[in-house]
Amino acid sequence: MKILITGNMGYVGPAVVKHLRQRFPHAVLHGYDTGYFAHCLTGAAQFPERLLDLQIYGDVRTLPAASLRGYDAVVHLAAISNDPMGNRFAAVTAAINQDASIALARAAAAAGVGHFVFASSCSVYGVAAGRPKREEDELNPVTAYATSKIGTERGLADIGGDMVVTCLRFATACGMSDRLRLDLVLNDFVACALTQRRITVLSDGTPWRPLIDVADMARAIEWAATRDADNGGRFLVVNAGRNEANYQVRDLAHAVASTVSQCEVDINLAAPADSRSYQVDFGRYAELAPDHLPRLTLADSINRLVDGLAGMGFADPNFRNAALMRLVVLQGHIEHGRLTEDLTWL
Length: 346
Hints:
This protein has 346 residues and is of the alpha/beta class. The protein has helices at 13-23, 83-88, 90-110, 144-157, 185-196, 214-226, 249-259, 283-288, 298-311, 326-335; strands spanning 2-6, 28-33, 54-57, 73-76, 115-121, 127-133, 164-170, 172-174, 198-201, 208-213, 235-240, 246-248, 264-267, 277-280.
């Protein structure tokens, strides 16, 4: 088995590489990444890419189509990966997350790749009151990031041939990583708790978020990269997570506070309603991938984050303006003349 993982040097990538190497010790694993966040290691005992057979540095916007020949699967993680970055770099988000993703999938199909796994997002549901959302429900994106994910899903649906395509609409990522991000709700709360002994919730605490640990995202990707076409169809869009992991933001804050001693919760009850609120139904994923359902509980993810950050000696109360926030890293590259405004290396 030979697998290409794009965007492997981000937040989720190290967990995916580690899991695939454990599951398929004799597989050929290649990474492809532009390296925006390659230096953002967090408590890693070893360089995560040591587990790869080859690390390739390049931009997915210019990935040579001929280089895809010989791969059994492409796991496509590369993206401008959250709402603040999407808002700051809206045109680049469309170019990388959508246009380049569709072009990559078409090239993979032409090259004879057997499986294409696209890391989509439950954020496509956006403003979604009422019952938990299923895959066939109306989409209501409120950010450039979510819009780009919808555009890519629709583009992938039009690709012909025999390639098995899986769009995993992941719940909100969380958990410890060798390249940790703190611009995610649970990770942010744990960082607040450890550095300030106070969790500051910027919303009124009522929005709903489904969560999935990066370790469980890796298990879902393994399934998608190896599933038979008769298990879900040649083209599949599926919510990836578990029903029990739909939480209101205030409940996440209190769960973290109960783990970290002498920690208080400060909720901004006067904040305007956060339009990004959605519960998600993961029933289809449970039916199709019963052996790959998420295993880590909320407490597991919190404890792993606490242990990981403590092990790093993390103590920056101003972390929201520091290097573990992905937008801050990109802004730094631009300000120091390393990246252009369209996020091309100089």
